[in-house]
Design brief:
CATH topology of the largest domain: Alpha-Beta Plaits
Largest sheet: 5 strands, antiparallel
Low-confidence stretches: 1-7, 195-202, 275-287
Oligomer: single chain
CATH class of the largest domain: Alpha Beta
Structural class: alpha+beta
Distance between the termini: 17 Å
CATH architecture of the largest domain: 2-Layer Sandwich
Number of strands: 14
Strand order of the largest sheet: 4-5-3-7-6
Number of helices: 6
Number of domains: 2
Amino acid sequence: MRTNGVHLLVVSVRLVFELEAITDNIYDLRYHHSLQGFVYRLLKHAGYVGVHDAQGYKFFSFSNIYPPRDAAVGERRSLIIASPDPGMVVAMKTATKRLHPDGQIRIGKSEWAVRGLELVGPRIGRSGCVKTGTPIVIRIPKDRYTAYGIKPDKDYEYLYWRPPLPLAAFRKQIEDNLYKKYRDYYGRTGAEMEGRGRREDESTILEEIQFRKQVCNHILINGSEVKVIGTLWEFHFKHLDGEKREIVKFGVDAGFGEMNSLGFGFMNVARGSCASPSLPVEVTGRG
């Protein structure tokens, strides 16, 4: 991949917290606000002060505390923070040690001992599978209803993608989102991206997509509870190379879809195949 004559390589680095409950912790289904606050505090003390108030994409994502269930004292859980900016992730590790020298953290009402703090780099090859760690949020704006053949029963400003809305709408919106984030991060122009030969009717990244589940999350925004509809997916690749591969690597760390800084669209790279023959897979030819 090249931009402005300089070769760029997306370097994947993630910060993995291995946690042990030091109190009986009840899993909070509305964890997004408290976990986002924990991440932003780390970012602030890592030297990324302006990220919280910056307009546009934030270029980081994070998992839930998983497995997502209540944890009795002594039980282990994990948390992952990812970004296409390896310097950000490394600085957050340093900030964690500086802010919590006793190795104990509090996220919302839950309290944990940090038993491990490790930098890892997931590998994405020419083929493989990535799947959602947290739901992907895609909103279809009102001005795209006609293009996608959507006829809502009310005059909504947008619709969260979910079945039975057209799969083509999900595919187009999520790929556009990936390209925009990638372009913004590396400062590439729209003309440069279009110069790669992308057509309106062409899937340039997603080869096989497999719908898993629709979920409803309740999050706090400006003190009010808001319902957000997301979906869980598997994405299978057999012909990733060049820039496509770099864009997928970028998206795996920056997050797929919208609201990544609220904890949505966190992605995991599967070890081996994550295909399930019990669910339908939509296959698209190489772009």
